[in-house]
Design goal:
Helix 3 packs across helix 6 (about 175-200). By secondary structure, the chain is α+β, with helices and mostly antiparallel strands. It is extended and about 75 Å long. The protein has nine helices and four strands, in the order E-E-H-E-E-H-H-H-H-H-H-H-H.
Length: about 250
């Protein structure tokens, strides 16, 4: 835990100072050479470190420039981790043995890797199909997709106690600039939806009641609820959503 102040030609530079900063040795969160020179410092010790910023540093006024950091070590901590044994497994999981817990972790990691690979394959497939398609996309469809992105972003921020207007102020952006940043991705998503819909229509793809039930069951399992309980809460539009999921998957297949 340290206080530090960075100076260039004897003058403090922006973003170069902090108090009570916790640096984990080995994390390499500072520029090269900094960590190596604070190793061994004791609480209360002070020293001055001479460094040169990397040539490719993002702040152009500091890139390749020699600077000094005045550092005071406030406190030294050591990370202590528990033994990886059966007791650990009982504390952090529903399993009684480390072997069972490890097997469960391996199973979940394999599932994640399989899903990631399948998603990547699907994305590349859709990208290829869209590249071979000739489509006129009305701008209002793109604007609606951008609206959806921004609404989802605002909702995520609200969970963290942030407002979208405040985010724009912090980042120095206007709403027009934020929307422009989403435009290309929104266009790709709309194009994918239009092309997949065309394939569903051309192939006369539909979803049976059994297939929709299976999709709801998968959702229920991820939500750790019964399919019957989930179905009781679904509206007609929700049911249509699951039906569209099945038809889209059939188109991709």
């Amino acid at each position: 835990v340290m206080d530090y102040e960075g100076v260039k030609d004897g003058v403090p530079f922006e973003g170069g100072s902090a108090k009570g900063y916790e640096l984990a040795l080995g994390s390499h969160t500072f520029i090269p050479g900094f960590e190596e020179q604070v190793v061994g410092m004791k609480a209360g010790e002070e020293k001055t470190i001479d460094l040169t910023f990397p040539e490719d540093y993002h702040a152009k006024d500091l890139a390749g420039q020699p600077v000094q950091f005045k550092v005071k070590c406030v406190e030294v901590k050591e990370k202590k981790v528990p033994a990886i044994d059966d007791e650990f497994a009982k504390d952090v999981s529903e399993f009684d043995t480390l072997a069972d817990y490890r097997a469960d972790v391996e199973k979940r990691l394999n599932e994640q890797a399989k899903n990631a690979a399948e998603n990547e394959r699907t994305d590349k497939l859709i990208e290829k199909v869209c590249a071979n398609a000739t489509v006129e996309i009305p701008q209002p469809m793109i604007e609606r997709q951008i609206d959806q992105h921004i609404n989802e972003m605002a909702m995520r921020m609200s969970y963290q106690g942030l407002k979208l207007d405040d985010f724009l102020k912090y980042t120095g952006q206007t709403m027009e600039q934020l929307r422009a940043g989403y435009a290309e991705n929104a266009k790709k998503q709309v194009l994918a939806e239009v092309v997949l819909d065309a394939i569903r229509t051309a192939e006369n793809l539909d979803a049976t009641e059994e297939e929709v039930d299976a999709e709801i069951a998968k959702y229920a399992e991820s939500a750790e609820k019964s399919a019957e309980d989930i179905k009781k809460t679904l509206s007609d539009s929700d049911m249509e959503y699951f039906k569209e999921l099945v038809k889209t998957q059939k188109a991709i297949d």
